[in-house]
Structures are given as structure tokens and as C-alpha cells.
From TrEMBL:
The keyword Cytoplasm does not apply. This is Major facilitator superfamily (MFS) profile domain-containing protein. Residues 17-43 are annotated as: Disordered. It is found in: Membrane. Residues 24-43 have a biased composition (Basic and acidic residues).
């Protein structure tokens, strides 16, 4: 058995002028259960259906420049089951979240006891706390759900991802049951306090469950790949291609995000249930769907490839950064050499005593440095999510427009439907076409494209808001016109492009960010780095909460328009600051990536 570093040494040497590092001593062990049971269809250090005589394990720099890149084979059934877990969790998340805005903002419709509409032209509601309360609690829930992945990631990297998903599933189910029971008619009849308390308890408990699941599933999916390093394969047609793990991860994340938006189709179901039956049934539906997750997890138990957790890995990463910061930075040396003081070889070459805190090898230092750069890139997603939160607030705008029998929050289904159509186009048409022509469309370029389309959607939303103010009988206080004959004579479907442009933005930017986390993070810290990316959504929601004083009539034009202008400036700065990272992306990703094959 041989361990082959996939890139030639001259290629590795081109990475900031450093020599090829050795692999982390802990990163090759693979286990399948918490009790070390072995999967029946997987053996460590072997890959199914590999004919080594037809593989050149080390692509040359010429190969990288001339050969087409393709994805590797993956265990299809296992991957399908994993994305089903994500789809069910997202169905529960969006299915419960979709009715919440109306549940909080709108009052109980006339002659209704369930919150559903009785008379034509009405909007479903229950608590009647107003737009600001609905927006504030909505932004808090989004913030909490994208802050808790940090907690889940620490548990996942320390105690195991599979175990963390199980605990999170239990928390999530508990929250959904509480929300359902506190929204039944007897509870609503007691006043606002009980249902509101139940809603807040649901947000806190289910948020913990979301964080534990969200930080693990994409990482578990990426761990099912056969190879972590590129190699040359000869196809049946005689064509030589590079099987690139980066392309494999890109494809997996495309379909992972596709499954998220399958779950998002809950937006079709629960708003209609809310409008025509009740809020409690609209919350019971996602609860029932979520109950499929424990069944799938049981099936997956003996199928998953899993790296054993290391309780010290996050502490080690912070120790690396501390050494580089407080020792390397004081020397006033270049950026590359500032990290040298955290490497064991730095002390071995100088024959001086190594600090006891250093329990890692050189590769881990490179991986931490690479992950830190990725975390800097993720800062560009804060305005991306601020813009997304403003789009979510457009349900209040749609409630002021002519509905023609359409629930005002049903428009949100356009976003996942467009993504479900657009992702296959990217994965099967656009990206393969660009790779076959040798056109590089790197992660920074893809993120920038997604950011720009998001800006366009927000600018369009500002224009629609301006027109509604112009034609509404209530003028710049359009939300005060609640009766059907008082609403602006403009179909709410004119807001459809907002959701379509937002979907394009997510397909380019958000999917790429998942890919970026998994290719840049140290092997044992993938959940943690994923959580750092998700945390940007929490930051965006926190900043959106600061916008609450102007998240009402007559300031909505300035809110949407001002955010769009500011975001455009950020997009330009983002691209100028990070565009060079695309150039060295492949070499950067290769550091610390080794492959094991039977020779």
C-alpha cells in the first residue's frame, strides 16, 4: 500500500514558496459508528471498482492545464438518504416558518377561531401584534437558527457528527410539538400570552435542533467521497480525464442545496393550510414530515463513512493562530513566514525545543491558515443575508396588493421552484460546458455573480414598493389598508422576479460557499468552518433587527433602495479584494490532501 500525494512536488512548491507538507497523523483513520462497527459495503483504504492499471495517480501540471475535470463516483443510495434528511429538516423549518409572519402580524379574521380566513379577501392571522413584532421575531428566529450551528459544530467535531444529528433531531421534534399544541383553538381562545410563549419556546428549542443538523449534514455528505485527491482516469472512450475531488464536492453541494429547496416546497403546503383550515394543522404537517428523519438515520447507521472525532482539534486550531499571532507577527516577517513558528519543523530545523502546545504537524498549520482565509471571504455573505431578510419582509408588501385568492405568503415558493430548475442547469449544462472549454469560473467569481443578482432583486423590490405607495388608497401607509377593496390595484405576482433573482443569487453564491467550506477546512474541523459560514446569516439577521425602526411605512422604499445601493458597493469591494484567490484555488485546495489506494 502506498500513500500518493496527488500534485507533483513542483506544483506544491509553487504554493507561496513552501515545500510539500506531510499529512496530519490523525486524518486517515475512518470509523463507521460510535461503537466502531464496520459498514458491510465499505473497507478502509480501498475504493470499489478501481482498476489501478488504468489510473495515473499523479496528474502533472500539463494534465491540469489540458485535461477535462470530472467528478468521482459516490455511493448513490447513501448520498440520497443523507440529502433526504436535509430535505425533511428543511421542510420542517420552512413549513413551520412560512405561516409564522401572518400568525404574529395579522389579527384573528372575523368569525374565525383557528386563524384561517372565513370571508373573501382576508389574510390569515392570530396574534395581531403588527409588522414590527412579526419582523423582529422572524429575524430573531433566523439569527438563532444560524448562530446555533456554531454550538452544533463544536459538539459534532468533538463527539461525532452522527450522534449530534440524533440529539438535535430530538430537540427539533420537541419544539414542533410545542408549537402545534399552543396554536390549537382552545389555546388561541385564552389570549395572546400562551400562544406567543409557545412560539418563542419553539423558536429556541427548534433553533438548537436546526443548528445541530445544519452544521453536520453537508459535511457527512462530503465525507462519502471515494477520494480526497485528484487522479487521472481513462474513460471507456479513451479520453483521459482528471477526477477532481473539488468537482465532486461541487456536484454534491449542488444536489445538497437542491434537496434544501425540495424541503422549501413546504411553502406551497402550509400557507394554504393556514389560510383555509388552521394554523395548528399548518404546524402539524411539518412535524409529521420531520418524523421520517429518525427512520432514515437508523438506515444510515451502518452505511456512513465517518471520521472519528477529536476533542482537541478546535483547541489546536486556536493554538496555531495564537502562536502565529503573538510570536510570528512580532517578528515583522512576511505573511507566509508568520505561520512558520506554529510548525514543528520550524523548531526541528533550528534544533531548539518545541513548545509543548504543538501537538500537530506542518500540514495542519497550512489547513488552519487556508481556513482562516475562507472565513475572511465569508464576511461578504453578511450583506447577502441582509438582502435576503429584506426579501422575506416582502410578504408584508404583498399583503397590501391585490391577491385574487392567492395567499400572500405563497409567493415565496417561487424561490425554491426556480432553484430546483436552475441547479440542474448549472450542474449538467453550464459548469461542464465551461470546464470542457477550459474556462475557469472560480468560487470567488461565482459568489460575486450571486451577490450581484441579489442586488438586482432588491433594487426591483424597491421599485415595486414605490409604485404601491403611489397607487394605494392609503398612500405611504399601505399596510393600514387591510380590507380587500382598499388594497393596491396591483397583482402580488409582480413580485415574482424578486424571488427568481434571489434564487439565482443563492444558486451561485450560497452553494459555492458550502463547497468553499468543505475544500478549505481542516479535515476534523469541517463542521466548525461550516458553522462559521452559517454564522454570517446570523450576523445578517442581527443587523436586520437594527433596521426594525424603519421596517414600516412610510420608510420601506428607503430600506430596500438604501440596502441595494450599499450592497452593490460591497460586491465591488468583495471582488476586488478576493479575485486573486481564484487563481491559486486548485493548488491551495491540494495542501494536506492525500489519497490511499491499493497498488
Amino acid at each position: 500500500m502506498t500513500n500518493s500525494t496527488v500534485l507533483h512536488s513542483d506544483t506544491i512548491l509553487s504554493y507561496n514558496g513552501i515545500s510539500a507538507p506531510t499529512k496530519h497523523p490523525h486524518d486517515e483513520q475512518i470509523i463507521h459508528d460510535s461503537d466502531n462497527e464496520k459498514s458491510s459495503d465499505y473497507k478502509e483504504d480501498s475504493i470499489k471498482n478501481i482498476d489501478v492499471d488504468q489510473h495515473q495517480l499523479q496528474p502533472t501540471s500539463t494534465d491540469f492545464a489540458t485535461l477535462r475535470k470530472v467528478s468521482d463516483n459516490v455511493p448513490v443510495l447513501t448520498c440520497v438518504l443523507i440529502v433526504l434528511v436535509e430535505a425533511a429538516e428543511r421542510f420542517a423549518y420552512y413549513g413551520a416558518k412560512a405561516p409564522i409572519h401572518n400568525y404574529i402580524q395579522q389579527p384573528m379574521p372575523t368569525d374565525s377561531v383557528t386563524g384561517s380566513t372565513v370571508h373573501p379577501g382576508e389574510t390569515a392571522g392570530a396574534l395581531g401584534l403588527g409588522q414590527q413584532a412579526a419582523t423582529g421575531l422572524g429575524d430573531f428566529y433566523t439569527f438563532w437558527c444560524y448562530f446555533t450551528p456554531l454550538i452544533g459544530a463544536i459538539f459534532g467535531d468533538t463527539y461525532g457528527r452522527y450522534r449530534t444529528v440524533w440529539v438535535s433531531t430530538g430537540l427539533y421534534i420537541t419544539g414542533l410539538i410545542i408549537l402545534t399544541l399552543t396554536s390549537i383553538p382552545p389555546s388561541l381562545a385564552t389570549g395572546k400570552a400562551g400562544p406567543l410563549a409557545g412560539l418563542i419556546v419553539f423558536q429556541i428549542i427548534s433553533g438548537l435542533g436546526t443548528g445541530g443538523i445544519k452544521s453536520q449534514i453537508s459535511v457527512i455528505l462530503a465525507e462519502q467521497t471515494n477520494s480526497s485527491a485528484a487522479y487521472v482516469r481513462t474513460e471507456s472512450t479513451g479520453e483521459r480525464v482528471i477526477v477532481d475531488p473539488n468537482v465532486t464536492v461541487q456536484r454534491l453541494m449542488n444536489w445538497f442545496y437542491w434537496s434544501i429547496n425540495v424541503g422549501s416546497l413546504a411553502f406551497v403546503v402550509t400557507p394554504n393550510v393556514e389560510k383555509y383550515h388552521s394554523f395548528w394543522l399548518s404546524y402539524l404537517v411539518p412535524t409529521i414530515v420531520f418524523l421520517f428523519i429518525p427512520v432514515v438515520l437508523l438506515i444510515l447507521r451502518h452505511r456512513l463513512k465517518r471520521l472519528p472525532p477529536r476533542s482537541s482539534v478546535i483547541l489546536e486550531a486556536f493554538r496555531v493562530m495564537r502562536l502565529a499571532s503573538f510570536t510570528g507577527w512580532r517578528k515583522g516577517s512576511s505573511d507566509a513566514s508568520k505561520w512558520d513558528v506554529a510548525k514543528p519543523t520550524y523548531y526541528e530545523q533550528r534544533q531548539i525545543a518545541k513548545p509543548k502546545a504543538i501537538t500537530w504537524d506542518d500540514t495542519f498549520v497550512y489547513e488552519v491558515r487556508r481556513a482562516l482565509k475562507a472565513c475572511t471571504v465569508f464576511l461578504g455573505f453578511i450583506p447577502f443575508y441582509i438582502a435576503g431578510n429584506q426579501k422575506d419582509n416582502s410578504s408584508s408588501l404583498s399583503a397590501t396588493m391585490r391577491q385574487d385568492g392567492t395567499p400572500n405568503d405563497l409567493l415565496t415558493v417561487i424561490n425554491p421552484i426556480f432553484i430546483l430548475a436552475f441547479i440542474p442547469f448549472l450542474d449538467l449544462v453550464l459548469y461542464p460546458f465551461l470546464r470542457s472549454r477550459g474556462i475557469k469560473f472560480g468560487p470567488i467569481a461565482r459568489m460575486t455573480t450571486g451577490f450581484f443578482t441579489s442586488v438586482l432583486g432588491l433594487a426591483y423590490l424597491a421599485c415595486i414598493q414605490w409604485y404601491v405607495y403611489k397607487i394605494s388608497p392609503c398612500g405611504h401607509f399601505a399596510t393600514e389598508c387591510t380590507k380587500a377593496d382598499e388594497k393596491a390595484d396591483l397583482s402580488l405576482w409582480v413580485l415574482a422576479p424578486v424571488y427568481a433573482l434571489s434564487a439565482m443569487g443563492e444558486s451561485f453564491a450560497a452553494i459555492t460557499a458550502y463547497e468553499y467550506t468543505l475544500t478549505k477546512a481542516p479535515v476534523k474541523m469541517k463542521s466548525f468552518i461550516t458553522a462559521i459560514f452559517l454564522l454570517q446569516n446570523a450576523f445578517g439577521s442581527a443587523i436586520s433587527i437594527a433596521f426594525l425602526p424603519v421596517s414600516k411605512d412610510p420608510y420601506m422604499i428607503w430600506l430596500y433602495g438604501g440596502t441595494a445601493i450599499g450592497y452593490f458597493v460591497v460586491v465591488v469591494v468583495f471582488y476586488l479584494a478576493f479575485r486573486k484567490l481564484d487563481k491559486d484555488n486548485d493548488v491551495d485546495n491540494a495542501v494536506g490532501k492525500e489519497d490511499k489506494r491499493v497498488n
